[in-house]
Amino acid sequence: MSQQASAGDVIRALELQPHVEGGYFRRTFQADQRATLETAGGPRYLMTSIYYLLTEQSPVGQFHFNQSDILHFFHLGDPVEYSLIFADGSLQTLIMGSDILAGQQLQLHVPGGIWKASRLLDGPDGFGLISEAVSPGFDFADMQIGDRRKLIAQYPQHQAVIEQLTRADG
Ligand code: GUN
Q: What is the per-residue pLDDT for 2?
């Protein structure tokens, strides 16, 4: 970048808003020039897309569940750790970031029907910026924020990570 951007600079430049999961976002695309898709939850855009930003002030995208497949693309800043809990109870942890030689991922596919959380890792920038392309398109009716007690009851073997990546009151 032309100068050392702060998290606030990125929020202003991309006109991001706080997201209910934590972090900041803005929808950049919805396929409204095409017919919608019929899903079990009703009609959805074929695809939607957002910018998503984590910052030192809002470093966690707490556990949530989506019906749709989501492709994530890393853009800028410090690495972001993803924690995925699959329906069979297995936990997968991986890192999105630009250090591909260290195994960090520029792209990440998260299938629909699993629990996902993200966390900004320490680094010089104080923010991590990605994009998400969601298909069928995002709809709040397809998304569930994780309730800490219920998630721990369902996946007791992952209590520590669930406590780290959910809100105390939720
Ligand atoms: N997460 C992934 N896509 C979206 C979106 O379009 N809107 C919101 N609020 N959250 C999302």
A: 60
